[in-house]
Write a structure and sequence with these properties.
Elements: H1 3-17, E1 27-32, H2 47-56, E2 61-63, E3 69-71, E4 74-79, E5 85-90, H3 104-116, E6 129-136, E7 139-144, H4 151-155, H5 165-171, E8 185-191, E9 195-200, E10 214-219, H6 223-232, E11 237-238, H7 246-250, E12 255-270, H8 281-284, H9 286-295, H10 298-306, E13 311-312, H11 335-344, E14 350-357, H12 360-374, E15 378-385, H13 387-396, E16 401-406, H14 413-420, H15 434-444, H16 449-466, E17 469-482, E18 485-486, E19 502-503
Parallel strand pairs: 1-10, 1-11, 14-15, 14-16
Antiparallel strand pairs: 2-3, 4-5, 5-7, 6-7, 8-9, 9-10, 11-17, 12-16, 12-17, 13-17, 18-19
Helix pairs in contact: 9-11, 14-15, 15-16
Length: 505
């Protein structure tokens, strides 16, 4: 056969392979609260960015609705006996959205970038990784300086998202302007503070699970406006429906509520050692912080602000999950005990300022906390701030206490160490206990669930005694959606996965 005939035949075969499947139909319009930052897993630090990545960039490992680790681009993985190596078997027949083949060399390129690119925010997550060995096109081994159980969770997040090596070679850091991944939807356009459009990738390895043509993410910060757009039919699904608005939304018979317990939680960060603002009884005496904890009725807070839809909690892990400690259930408020503890500390009345985000919900949470704590002798001044300003004040140490949120992760280390380890990147209060750090380190190095549970129970005992943070509740992810939306399975990480989702005519 002549070469001139071979090339057109190959081109037709390639187009047929990547052609849209006839059963896919519809554009999904998704109402988001926040604008994502850089659309590059190496540079991204926002939760909203993870929402978009869930449709665009498959990971080596994913999580199930039960928060178990499940295959995605890797079909299997195994630890070495000494816990110093993780070997992954990679899925065959996968292509990136530019047609580049996904293989072990592509994984190596991505992990090396996450580890070494000057702009990468993933370096700390992959810190113990010292070697990457391509065994064959579908097998890769990762070597560690020391055992590191959270690596599985790392590969199930942004550091496990694979981008086309060819696209990375061309674009470098500018890949954020037009990311090229191996997920079901490929990037089309972005209009800042307005929308991001993705289009179905016909060459997706799991194409039979994709029933939509397009996803348009519209950024609408105001929850009331998002809901109005949903009710008017301008959106098909919206995130973060305020609990008090749910009853009104459901009066529209063409709308429904989709919900899931969330890994995300709210906590109060205390300044214990970060500058002059820490030199207060609140910052220096754990009895004062324990008294404040005793004054808070978490169940009442949930009822008043969230119509009972959130999950009262005093730990970093979701109640009754693997690493939640049943020995410390959520306690009721005890104003008498709080007053007694303050008196023992020599401070029957304590005044401090609590920073909050300037959203209506956060201000309402602050007001309820202010009222509850007031009954025990605390005088709380609320200082609402724009979110980035609040974070800046906390980092600078110009705060006494701050109401903050964490989106949550599937491994307990990432829900704890960020705030409470001596070098935690969100340890704004500069709390530092070497014995506590040793407990965290020991828990990281064990891949045995029972052993990790025992260590994390010691961790819980410690932070409930010292109270460097006061954990308040887990959120519940609340989506409002048209009843035309079918097949969406919510997960505790709150990420919208499009597999299986369809829209009725």
């Amino acid at each position: 056969m002549h070469r001139s005939r071979i090339l057109p035949a190959l081109a037709l075969a390639f187009l047929a392979f990547f052609a849209p499947h006839a059963h896919a139909a519809g554009t999904l319009r998704y109402g988001m609260q926040d604008e994502p930052d850089a659309l590059d897993p190496a540079q991204s630090g926002t939760y909203s960015g993870r929402v978009v990545f869930a449709a665009m960039c498959d990971k080596l490992i994913d999580t199930s609705p039960a928060m178990q680790f499940v295959p995605q681009l890797a079909t299997a993985w195994r630890w070495s006996a000494d816990g110093l190596a993780l070997t992954l078997t990679l899925r065959a027949g996968v292509h990136f959205q530019d047609g580049t083949i996904f293989d072990a060399a592509a994984v190596e390129t991505n992990l090396e970038r996450y580890l070494h690119a000057p702009y990468s925010l993933r370096k700390a997550e992959l810190g113990p990784l010292t070697g990457i060995t391509v065994i064959d096109p579908h097998t890769i081994r990762l070597t560690l300086a020391h055992p590191y159980a959270p690596l599985i969770a790392v590969l199930a997040d942004r550091a496990g998202m694979m981008l086309s090596p060819a696209a990375l070679a061309r674009a470098g850091k500018a890949i954020a302007l037009h990311p090229v991944c191996a997920g079901p939807f490929q990037f089309v356009e972005r209009v800042a503070e307005d929308h991001i459009t993705l289009e179905r990738f016909g060459g997706y390895w799991n194409a039979k699970a994709i029933h939509l043509d397009r996803i348009i993410y519209r950024m609408i910060p105001n929850a009331a406006v998002r809901l109005e757009n949903l009710e008017a039919g301008s959106l098909d699904i919206i995130e973060q429906v305020p609990p008090p608005d749910i009853a009104g939304m459901l009066r529209h018979h063409d709308l429904k509520l989709i919900s899931s317990p969330a890994l995300a939680y709210a906590t109060i960060s205390f300044n214990l050692a970060n500058g002059k603002a820490a030199d207060t009884p609140l910052g220096q005496d754990p009895r004062v912080r324990r008294a404040l904890a005793l004054a808070i009725d978490r169940s009442a807070l949930n009822q008043v602000v969230f119509s009972g839809r959130f999950i009262p909690n005093n730990q970093t892990e979701v109640p009754h999950s693997t690493y939640w400690d049943p020995a410390f259930p959520v306690p009721p408020a005890d104003i008498g005990a709080a007053r007694k503890l303050l008196a023992e500390a020599g401070h029957p009345s304590i005044a401090f300022t609590l920073l909050t985000d300037n959203t209506p919900t956060d201000q309402e949470v602050g007001q309820v906390l202010q009222s509850m704590a007031g009954a025990a002798g605390f005088k709380i001044t609320l200082q609402p701030m724009q979110a980035t300003a609040e974070v800046s004040a906390a980092r600078a140490g110009t705060y006494q206490a701050a109401l903050v949120f964490w989106s949550g992760r599937s491994d307990p280390d990432f829900n704890l160490s960020i705030w409470l380890a001596c070098n935690g990147f969100l340890n704004w209060g500069h709390d530092c206990s070497k014995p506590f750090d040793q407990l965290l380190a020991a828990a990281r190095t064990s891949t045995d669930i029972a052993a990790r549970q025992a260590l994390y129970r010691k961790v819980v005992t410690s932070y409930l005694q010292d109270v460097p943070h006061l954990f308040l509740y887990n959120l519940r992810w609340l989506w409002g959606a048209t009843t035309r939306l079918n097949g969406y399975t919510p997960q505790p990480d709150g990420l919208f996965r499009p597999q299986g989702v369809s829209l009725s005519p």
